[in-house]
Amino acid sequence: MRRVRLPFTPGLAIEFTDRERALDQVRELAEKGTGYPIVVFGPEGCGKTSWLLQSVEVLKDEGYSVVYFNPLKRYFVAEVGVRSIEERVRELLKQALSEHELAKLIWVTIDIARDALKLGRRRLAVIVDDAFQFTSAYSASLFVKGLLELIEHPDEEYEKIVAIAATSEGFSRREIGRHRWAWLRPMWNMSKKGFEELYERIPGEKPPFEDVWRLTGGNPDVLRKLYQASWSVEKVVAEYLESKEITPSFVARWRKWLEEATRDPDALWDPSTPEELVNELIAKNLIIYNMYTRDPWFWIDETPPQKDLEIGIGRYVAWQTPLHREAVRRSLKEL
User: Fold this and answer.
1) Rounded to an integer, what distance in angstroms lies between the CA atom of residue 307 and that of residue 311?
2) Which residues on neighbouring strands pair with residue 293, listed in sequence order?
3) For the chain, give me the number of helices (H) and strands (E)?
4) Is residue 220 classed exposed, middle or buried when 0-12, 13-18 and 19+ CB atoms within 10 A define those classes?
5) β-sheet with 75-79: strand ranges across
6) Is residue 158 located within the same domain as residue 263?
7) Average predicted confidence (pLDDT) for the chain
8) pLDDT at position 27, please?
9) Could you give the CA distance from residue 56 to residue 59 in angstroms, rounded to a whole number?
10) What is the pLDDT of residues 129-183, one digit of tens each?
11) How far is CA 331 from CA 39, 251, 277, 327, 328, in A?
12) Contacting residues for 134 by C-beta, under 8 A, at least 6 apart
């Protein structure tokens, strides 16, 4: 299997690392096909995109034609062995001038998949990555329903279909799960062993691994941010304060619950916690709410620990990364 090389920072590309169990799970999906679309959710920057790009290689090795779409990366490819379809995709990419325009093409993936089936493609994979942030939660759920229709009511007979969509949007996950049109599967940050392998591939002087682990919790995007910020925690926290809109009014309004949650995120699971606060934290992509049972069957790749307060993981709720929690904690101190 070809290992994809992924851009880490400008001028530095790193070969796909770890996630061996997750790749084995893709091979299992390829063997059986997916009776329902698989919707993978998890912390932003945890490596879902890298895994999906490597999964494309796995599926091609298993004899699948692949349609892959990621509007955020401006990457839309149809490797289906049909020149007219592949040219159509290239033309669509040229016409889309912005991420939002490109995101409107999400439904085209299903059209292209149907065309590929009509042209005799017996094994087909449809992978949609990080597109739901450009749509409403309701539109995301309708798209997943469209994938299910492709699987259950195709225009042409086929051997197997693999349909996977990935999201870090908590509200999309809720809406999709409410309709039961897909299997929801969480993915967490990298395991400590795999993350250390990634850490070792970064050149130059860097803080001790244990310090980096406690700051990132195994999230490769936070590692990237720290590296680009010359390992300055202050710069990365300041970026989160701005991008997540952790404003003085937000902190002042919810101080009591936020203080408890920075000590133990499971405090947010308490029935007395205002639902409005939970919704805001989900919308800001600060927490993962309702962590699944740690039964490996439910998870893509390795499961997180049952609880690890050092890196912000509770039994039912978790901060996306320790630095997400740190941004809130510093706001509490400064006010």
Assistant:
1) 9
2) none
3) 14, 10
4) buried
5) 75-79, 65-70, 123-129, 160-167, 38-41, 183-186
6) no
7) 93
8) 97
9) 5
10) 988 888 888 888 999 999 999 999 998 899 999 999 998 877 678 888 888 899 9
11) 34, 7, 16, 6, 5
12) 71, 99, 100, 103, 106
Please give the Cα distance from 326 to 274 (Å, whole number).
22
CA–CA separation, 259 and 329 (whole Å): 7
- Tell whether the torsion through CA atoms of 173, 265, 44 and 305 is positive or negative: negative
Asked if residue 138 and residue 182 are part of one domain, the reply reads yes
Q: How many CB atoms lie within 10 A of CB 7?
A: 11
Same-domain check for residues 284 and 321: yes
Q: HEC string of 69-103?
A: EECCCCEEEEECCCHHHHHHHHHHHHHCCCHHHHH
Please tell me the distance from the alpha carbon of residue 316 to that of residue 141, in angstroms, as a whole number. Answer: 24
Name the DSSP class of 111.
H
Q: Say if residue 120 is in the same domain as residue 49.
A: yes
What is the DSSP code (8-state) at residue 3?
Answer: P
Cross-strand bridge partners of residue 164: 38, 127
- Cα→Cα distances 208→49, 212, 213, 318, Å: 27, 7, 9, 24
pLDDT tens-digit series, residues 172-181: 788 888 888 9
Residue 211 domain boundaries: 206-295+304-334
Backbone angles phi, psi at 239, to 5 degrees: -65, -40
Give the Å distances, CA to CA, from 158 to 37, 124, 151: 16, 8, 9
Q: What is the DSSP track for 186-202?
A: EB-SPPHHHHHHHHHTS
Number of domains within the chain = 2
Structure tokens at 295: 């039964």
**pLDDT at 179 (0 to 100):** 80
Indicate the burial class of 157 (C-beta count within 10 angstroms; 0-12, 13-18, 19 or more).
exposed
Given the structure tokens 């007219």, which residue do they identify? 84
Of 193, 247, 190, residue with least CA distance to 224: 190
**Of 154, 186, 218, which residue is a domain's last?**
186
DSSP letters along 241-267, please? HHHTT--HHHHHHHHHHHHHHHH-GGG
